[in-house]
Amino acid sequence: MTETTPLSLAEIEATARAAHAGQTDKAGRPYAEHLRAVAEGVRARGGDEEQIAAAWLHDAVEDDKLSRRWLEGAALTRRTRDIVLAVTKRSGEPPEAYAARILATPGALLVKEADLAHNADPARLAVLDGPTRTRLTEKYARMRALLGLVVS
Asked: pTM here?
């Protein structure tokens, strides 16, 4: 692949919004709201442009909205690609292996921390049914523990 100028954050945001168009989260909200919240969370935590770019794209490959092939060929920095791949869960992958990959990838922990913070937001969880809320709360707490993140 020849070196090209990486996409701007505005172009990456537009790509992510288009890829997730029509998708909603578990609460029925437009999925782009989650992407924006994670990108803003990364920025608020001191993340750099590559991490913010990865935040916009963090679920695109996992949700099959963009292919891994697209990611490899896109005008992104290697670090942004690596972070997206690190935070992309793989089918059947144990949480411990997923957490280890995130921890081993420079910049990925901050993106996953922002993702978990938004996913575990009590206001978002409050609109879900009890069993789903409990399951997700436990899932997010376990991942935070595996990543060594203090519960805030």
From this structure: 0.94
